[in-house]
Amino acid sequence: MNDAMAFLTSLFHTSFLPIVAAMLAGGLIGLEREYRDKSAGFRTFIFIAAGSALFTLLSRYFGGSDISRIAANIVTGIGFLGAGAILREGPRIAGLTTAAIIWLTAGVGMAMGAGEYLLGGLVTLLALIVLWLFPSFERRIDRLREQRIYEISLQGGVESFDQIRVALESASLRLIRREYFKEGSGLLRCRWVVLGSVSAHEQFVKFLLDAPFVAQFRY
């Protein structure tokens, strides 16, 4: 009986506890992603952390002389999973943060599987701090430097382009790229990619609303 209890206790500490710790860490990170309605959520991060911990544990038994061989492949394999979270939305690339967190969660799971509970716990705590606090700083920065794409249909010929350019300069907006198209209806259509603060963009939008030569616009 004592031998059985000793075996179960040893099994718990050496095999079961690392998996539980990894699932808890992955669950905490997953809760934040689930709350923000991201592509990878609560269960996904639990499985990523638990799977990484399990493979790290198994590398001790099946890794032979090089116990890092199986664990090293986790880093490569998790990259394919992270790539699935990256999507292109127009000119923007979405999902990079989620992909990076998937990679980090795998690292936390590996730390738990190796018995480094303090290290894994501290990294989880730091990740949660970054995920919860840093978005507010990002929003403030975005308000200072927001990129917009304006598609404008103009009347009045090429002279209208000069008035658009002057309006951009007076609003302190920086022109990144511009394209011109001639439409069959006689209107001139242009696409302007500009960078500036939110207040500067609103000033430019007000100019477009008041300008008589602007047939329509969108951004």
UniProtKB/TrEMBL annotation:
TM segment ranges: 6-29, 41-61, 67-86, 117-135
Protein's UniProt keywords contain Repressor: no
Presence of the UniProt keyword ATP-binding in the record: no
Cellular localization per UniProt: Cell membrane
One protein family per Pfam: MgtC
Predominant cellular place of this UniProt entry's protein: membrane
Alphabetical UniProt keywords: Cell membrane, Membrane, Transmembrane, Transmembrane helix
Record-stated family: Belongs to the MgtC/SapB family.
Name of the featured protein: MgtC/SapB family protein
Protein source organism: Thermanaerothrix solaris
